[in-house]
Amino acid sequence: MKRVHAWWPPLALLAAAVGVWAIVVHAAHVPDYLFPSPSSVARALGNDGSLLRHATLVTVREMLLGYLVAVAAALLLAILIHESSALRRALLPLLVLSQTVPTVLLAPILAVLLGYGIEPKLVVVAVVCFFPIVVNAVDGFRSTDPELVRMMRTLHGSRFAIFRRVELPGALPAIFSGARVAATYAAVGAVFGEWAGSSSGLGFVILQAQPALDTARIFAAVLVLSALALALYAVVAATERLLVPWSAERA
Amino acid sequence: MQLLVEPKVTVADGMSAEGVVRVLGGRRVLDGVDLRVPADGRVGIVGRSGAGKSTLLSLVAGLDEPDAGHLSVAGATAAEERLTRCALMPQRDCLLPWRTALANAALALENAGLSRREARDQARPLFARLGLAGSEELRPAKLSGGMRQRVAFARTLLAGKPVLLLDEPFGALDAITRAELQEWLAATLDEEPRTVLLVTHDVEEALLLCDRVLVLRDGRIAADLDVDAPRVVTDPGFVALRERALEAIG
Predict the structure, then answer these.
(1) Which of A156, A169, A170 is closest, CB to CB, to B108?
(2) Among A155, B29, B130, B222, which is disulfide-ready with B217 (CB 3.0 to 4.6 Å)?
(3) How far is it, in rounded angstroms, from Cα B63 to Cα B44?
(4) With 90 as the cut, is the pLDDT of residue A207 above it?
(5) Which of B157, B167, B154, B241 is nearest to B197 (CA)?
(6) Is pLDDT above 70 for B6?
(7) What is the mean pLDDT of residues A221-245?
(8) Is the Cβ–Cβ distance between A218 and B113 less than 8 Å?
(9) Residue A187 has pLDDT above 70, yes or no
(10) Which residues contact A189 (CB under 8 A, 6 or more apart)?
(11) Going from the N-terminus, what domains does chain B have, and what CATH number goes with each?
């Protein structure tokens, strides 16, 4: 019940914003190619249905695979950083550095290197997504209660047993907060990837609609992208509730 | 009586410390501690905060090495070896919130290489005997403080070690639960004899549970009391022992 109630305030605010948007666009006679009204965007969603559906499938695939690569790479890096202080000193600054390279510029370079298939898009999505997961995972591993580790050592606990039974489950809530943030980046990553060179996907649809001044279609594509990002977020949050049930029990 | 949890190491010679010194942050936290505990001995260690009680437990457990002196625990002298002889029950219950009560108790068995199922099956009888039947599948968040402490004790016993190190095991409990669990622990230890080192700041608790009480003060043993009086709080002999301990604590 409480969860349903939590949806009303943002929905009401969103509805109000769309209403104001509709009124302003109609009252000021703003042409569709400059700023389409909500009804034109809705029409575009309907008319370009099959085009958007096809593009959505392509983009979803890039988002999901790229996101999985990001999660895997992030966990591996976090474990390496956690287990070795030498690797920690070597890797952490480089990870931060990797985030200072603008992804928009990285994408075309990757397209030259990896071609115009799905690979450069996966890399862009992964590069955008992995950072919040690594940072949170490393913090999660590090905040393990030392008392638990001492106790484990007197209970036949090997280094691996301590990692598997104490550090990893203890870090899961932190890992998931990073994974949720990363989930909202995946759509943007996929679009950057497609802009650097592609022949399908929602980013490609946006790129093509721009010179045609089909602004309503651009809005429709952006709407779908937001929905995809939200859906990925929801899937990650649901996985969290499944894998970390104890943190909800405590709350 | 047959033990339900057979200690794996059979060298039953208790433990000893000779001239143990530990310097932490430039301070001699332990300044020459001598101690001898027979295999069936139950020794309480009392003292103010910072008197070196927990440091001594860490050393005995093999989690730390002394700067000088010699330690022997059930025949083991090196730190790594001592680790295999002792089970530590920390101040807080330290139950893992993601494991059920039974899985928490079975932790040491899983660490020792048993499968999840085998470990739980082995833990179950003891679990029931410690008055925990019915709460096997509950997570720690759903257990009362007293129950959590019992699960923590079950976990310590199931490690199958000959030496139990209890660090303020009831420090976090309310007075009534604490009194109940003290009685319960005394009864359980009678059934499952082990070498026990009990660290506490509560003199009465030490006198009720142990057959010998050491007072640690500024890193040295300031008093060594045999608990020869009846374990009744109002008994004159008991009261006298308590007075002597409190005086030594300073």
Answers:
(1) A156
(2) B222
(3) 20
(4) yes
(5) B167
(6) no
(7) 95
(8) no
(9) yes
(10) A63, A66, A103, A121, A124, A125, A126, A127, A128, A129
(11) 1-85+163-250 (3.40.50.300), 97-160 (no CATH)
Choosing among B55, B57, B89, B107, which should be mutated to test the A contact, i.e. which has the most A CBs within 10 A? B107
pLDDT of residue A246: 87
- Per-position DSSP letters for A193-251, written without gaps between them: HHHTS-SSSHHHHHHHHTTTT-HHHHHHHHHHHHHHHHHHHHHHHHHHHHH-HHHHHH-
Query: Which residues of chain B does A150 touch, with a Cβ-Cβ cutoff of 8 Å?
Result: 58, 61, 63, 88, 90
Q: Which of B48, B41, B42, B78 is nearest to B63 (CA)?
A: B78
Distance from CA of A179 to the nearest CA of B (A): 20
pLDDT average, residue stretch A142-150: 93
Which residue in B has a C-alpha nearest to residue A149's C-alpha?
A: B94
Looking at B14-129, which runs of residues are DSSP E strands? 15-24, 27-37, 42-46, 68-73, 86-89
CATH number for the segment(s) A47-246: 1.10.3720.10
Distance from CA of A240 to the nearest CA of B (A): 13
Name B124's Cβ contacts closer than 8 Å, sequence gap at least 6: B102, B136
Q: For position B5, what pLDDT does the model report?
A: 64
Which residue of chain A is at minimal alpha-carbon distance from B60? Answer: A154
Residues of A in contact with B155 (CB under 8 A): 155
- Decide if pLDDT at A24 tops 60: yes
Alpha-carbon gap: A144 to the closest alpha carbon of chain B (Å): 11
pLDDT band at residue B11 under the 50/70/90 scheme: very low
- The verdict on a CB contact (< 8 Å) between A150 and B92 is no
How does pLDDT run across B52-107, given as a tens digit for each residue? 999 999 999 999 999 999 999 998 999 999 999 999 998 888 999 999 999 999 99
- Nearest chain B Cα distance for residue A169, angstroms: 7
CA–CA gap between residue B127 and residue A106 (Å, rounded) = 59
**Closest alpha carbon within chain A to B164:** A154
Task: Indicate the burial class of A93 (C-beta count within 10 angstroms; 0-12, 13-18, 19 or more).
Answer: exposed
Q: What angle do CA B83, B162, A144 make, to 5 degrees?
A: 40
